[in-house]
Amino acid sequence: MPQSTPLSTRTHLMLRLLRRSATLLAGVLLLSTGLAQAPPTPPPQKLQKLRIVGGLADLNQYTRNEAPFWTQTLARLSAGKYDADIVPFDRAGVPGADMLRLIQLGVVPFGTALLSSLSARYPQYNAPDLAGLNPDVASVKQSVAAFRPYLENELRTRHRVEVLALYIYPAQVIFCRRALGSMADLAGRRIRVSSATQSDFVSAWGGVPVLTGFGQIMANMASNNTECAISGTLSGYKLGLHEVSTHLHTLPVTWGLAIFGANLAAWDGLPPDLKALLRRELPKLEAAIWTESERETAEGLACSTGAQACAGARAGHMVTVPLSASDERRRQEIFSATVLPRWIARCGVRCADVWNQTIGPARHIPAPGVP
Question: What is Dmax (Cα atoms) for the chain?
Answer without folding.
Answer: 135
